C-alpha cells in the first residue's frame, strides 16, 4: 500500500494578510487560481492525496509574528481558503478537514486530510534560531499517526525558515540552524524531528544559495557581481546543481539532511523576484531557496551521505525503491505575491516508515564511526530554557516594534514620557 501526499511550501512575503483580507482581491485570486491549477487530480478522476501539508514562511510582519494570538487566526483563515480550493478541485463529497496547525513567529504549517477519522496522536513542536533565540527564524512541526484498518504509521512534517543572505558565514549559519532545529524540537515523546519508525518531511525557505563554486560572495555583493553570477547560473544545466547549489554541496559533504532525499530539480530558481512579476531581482543571485526533502526510503542506512544517496542532480528511477513515486516536484511561477515562488511535491510513499538514521539514543548512525557522535534528540536545555528565551525575545521585539512603528505605540510612549517628566519635575 502506498500513501499519496501533497506538500507545498511558500515564503509569502507577508502577503497572507492580503490573501485573507478580501476574497475579491488580486492577491486572493492570484493565490487561489494558481493553487487550484497545480493541485493534482480532479473530480472526474477521483484521485486526491491522503494528506495535504502546507508550509508558510513570512506569514505576516515581524511585529504581528511576535504575538502568537495574531498569527494563529490568520493561519486558520488561510486554512479555510485552502480547504475551499481542495473542495472545488475534488468535490464537496470528499471530507477534507484541517487536522491541525502549528506556528512559531511568522512560520506556519497546516495539515489537511481526506479522512480525519484515521488521524490520531497529533503532536506539535517548534524551535527558534533567530537573533537572541527569537522566532525571526526557526521551524515548527507536526507529528501524527495515520491508521489503516488494523495498522498504523507515523508522519513528521516540519516547516523551516533558515537564516538568509550570501557568503560562507551565512552558509555555515544555515547549517547550524538546521542542526539546532532537528535536535531541539520537542514533540513531547522524547524525540525531535527524526524518530525511528516515522516518515519525515522537511520543507520551507531553507535559504541555501546558488553561489557555491561560482565565486566567493557575501552580503555586500555588488550589482555587477550578482548579474554576472546570475547569467552563469541560468545557463547551468539542472544536472550540474552540485556545482552551484549550496544545499546539494552540503548534503554531498554529509553536513546536513543526513539520510534525506530530494526529487530531481527541474524548475528554475525560486528566489529573488520582483514582486508581482517573473523577473529576477539582480540584488540577489537567483537561487533554489525553497525546497522539500524527505527521509530516504532507500536501504541500507549505512549508505547515507555517500554520493550514491544524494542523487538530486541526476534523475534516476532505479535509485528510489518502489513504491516511492514522485508525481511532480515543481514551482508555481504564476503565484507572484512575494519575491519567492512556491514549491510543491506530489509523491506516493510506502505505508511503512523508512529505516531510521538515528539509533535508540538519538545518535546519527552514519556519523558514529568516522566523525564522532552527533545527537539529534532534545536536551535538557532545549526542554526547559529555549521556549523561555524565545518568549522573552519575541515579547521584547514585538512591543519594541509596537512602541516605535505604530501610532498607538508612539502615542503611549509619548504619554509615558510626559508623565515621567512631570513626576521628576514634581520632586
Total discrete domains: 1
**CATH-defined fold name:** Deoxyribonuclease I, Chain A
Based on helices, strands and strand pairing, what is the structural class? alpha+beta
Classified by CATH, the class is: Alpha Beta
Spell out the CATH superfamily: Endonuclease/exonuclease/phosphatase
Beta-strand share of residues: 15-25%
Element string (H = helix, E = strand): EHHEHHEEEEEHEHHHEEEEHH
Shape: globular
Rg is: 22 Å
CATH architecture level-2 label: 4-Layer Sandwich
How many strands, what sense, and barrel or not for the largest sheet?
6 strands, mixed
Q: Quaternary state, please? A: single chain
Poorly predicted residue ranges: 300-321
Gap between N and C termini: 80 Å
Number of strands: 12
Report on this model:
Helix content is 31%, strand content 22%. The chain has 427 residues and is of the alpha+beta class. It has a single domain (2-426), classed as 4-Layer Sandwich (Deoxyribonuclease I, Chain A). The strands form two sheets. It has a six-stranded mixed beta sheet with strand order 3-4-2-1-12-11, with helices on one face. A hairpin with a 2-residue loop joins strand 3 (97-104) and strand 4. The longest helix is centred in the C-terminal third of the chain and has 26 residues, at 380-405. The protein starts with a strand and ends with a helix. Mean pLDDT is 86; it is low at 300-321. One of its GO terms (molecular function) is phosphatidylinositol-4,5-bisphosphate 5-phosphatase activity. This is Phosphoinositide 5-phosphatase. Residues 1-355 form the Inositol polyphosphate-related phosphatase domain.
